[in-house]
Amino acid sequence: MFNDALHTMTLSDDGSYTAYSKEYDEHYHSTKDGALNESLVKHIYPAFKIKQHQKKIVILDICYGLGFNTLATLYYHKTHNLKSKLYIYSPELDSSLIQSLKDFSYPKEFNIFKDIIEELSLNNLYEDKQFYIELFLGDAREYIKRFHNRFDIVYQDAFSPSSNPTLWTREYFKEIKEGMKEDALLTTYSIALATRLALYENGFILYINSGENYRDATVASFKKLSEFKVVDIEHKIACNPSIYSLRDEKY
Ligand SMILES: C[S@@+](CC[C@H](N)C(=O)[O-])C[C@H]1O[C@@H](n2cnc3c(N)ncnc32)[C@H](O)[C@@H]1O
């Protein structure tokens, strides 16, 4: 049974289950956008729009949670018949959550990954010809220090800045930047100006990821991307002169 003292399974609006965390008082996904839909439209589609032609794609999935972003990436790879090898690195603080995921009610799209879900839940590692997936049970802030110039894609999908601020600070994004290649991109559901500012202060260009069946999200990269509309961050700062990015020293 997946439900325990800290988590309750919740049906989201696209028919897929997500979970509610009593510890963070937050759902793992937007229940309105739908768990699977949110993962696809806010992370996988925008990232693969830019990266799907690469032969080797290295991804940092912050944080593993229920594993939707990792599993939806595999789903996209399979359904688009991609030939690339995927390397996915994903930290997660909650080891008992990872162990319980073999019993989670995933959407039918993930049925073909049953063995992978079980392997990750039991051993935190999976590898075959196409996929290498590594889960790190511990603090993401420690884990990301291991990587330099490695990632093509970062899925920034921590709990919200108000409930999990240390994964949204200016210093945190500096460490993330260290791990990213020059032509890498980062996707996140957050459109908060403080988040965008923390990215901007680290040299990212910000873009709007918008579509019909979801609320706006953000794409960030160091390079100009013609596929997305740029956020006029200078204008937003001018309209909100008291805005500041989150800083480590406060937490
Ligand atoms: C919003 S959920 C991630 C949802 C996930 N991407 C998915 O698709 O299911 C955030 C996750 O971050 C984890 N977390 C919180 N702080 C962390 C930290 N410092 N390091 C690693 N994981 C952390 C929580 O335990 C939770 O599982």
- Low-confidence blocks of residues: none
Strands, total number:
12
Ligand catalogue: S-adenosylmethionine
Walk across the major sheet and give the strand order. Answer: 6-7-5-4-8-9-11-10-12
Mean pLDDT: 96
Range of helix content: 25-40%
| CA radius of gyration | 17 Å
- Sheet with the most strands? 9 strands, mixed
- The computed structural class is alpha/beta
What's the order of the H and E elements? EEEHEHEHHEEHEHEHEEEH
| Annotation field: number of helices | 8
Basic shape: globular
The percent range for strand residues is: 25-35%
List the main descriptive attributes of the protein structure presented here.
251 residues; alpha/beta; nine-stranded mixed sheet; three-stranded antiparallel sheet; 8 helices; 12 strands; binds S-adenosylmethionine
Walk me through the topology.
Layout: E1 7-11, E2 17-21, E3 26-27, H1 35-51, E4 56-62, H2 68-79, E5 85-92, H3 95-100, H4 114-123, E6 125-127, E7 131-137, H5 140-143, E8 151-156, H6 170-179, E9 180-188, H7 193-200, E10 205-211, E11 214-221, E12 229-230, H8 233-239
Parallel strand pairs: 4-5, 4-8, 5-7, 8-9
Antiparallel strand pairs: 1-2, 2-3, 6-7, 9-11, 10-11, 10-12
